Amino acid sequence: MKLQVHSIHFNADRRLIDFIQSKLDKLETFYDRLVDGEVFLRINNEGIENKTVEIKLKVPGSQLFAKEQARSFEAATDLATEALRAQLKRFKTKIKNGRV
């Protein structure tokens, strides 16, 4: 899947980008028609859980979105991909039932 990673006000290292890519590639096992995705990485200035990950996934006819905060970008990515996995399953069920 084609993925764009935007790190806001800092430079993300290659290892983090590869980690995010591998996590989102696993979502294709649940729904193989993913078009592309956009990831926004932000560092907030408040609290311990100050890393925010926002993921937009485009699927035919719709767009899925997840936003999570955690202590690290890796943990936030895990939480966001789990949320997207659940959304993909619901989306796939809607397609099967002819509601989309």
Task: Give your account of this protein's structure.
This protein is of the alpha+beta class and 100 residues long. The model has no long low-confidence stretch (mean pLDDT 93). 20% of the residues are buried. It has helices spanning 14-25, 73-96; strands at residues 2-7, 36-43, 51-59, 62-70. The protein has a four-stranded mixed β-sheet, covered by helices on one side. It is 36% helix and 32% strand.
What is this structure, in a nutshell?
With 100 residues, the protein is α+β, with helices and mostly antiparallel strands. It is 36% helix and 32% strand. Helix 1 (14-25) runs parallel beside helix 2 (73-96).
Our measurement of the CA-to-CA distance between the termini, rounded to an integer number of angstroms, reads 22 Å
Describe the largest sheet.
Answer: 4 strands, mixed
Proportion in β-strands: 25-35%
Task: Report the strand count.
Answer: 4
Q: Give me the Rg, rounded.
A: 14 Å
Strand order of the largest sheet: 1-2-3-4
Treating each run of at least 4 consecutive H or I residues as one helix, how many helices?
A: 2
Classify the secondary structure makeup into a structural class. alpha+beta
Mean pLDDT level:
93
Low-confidence stretches: none
Helix content: 25-40%
Overall spatial form: elongated
Q: Please write the string of helix (H) and strand (E) elements.
A: EHEEEH
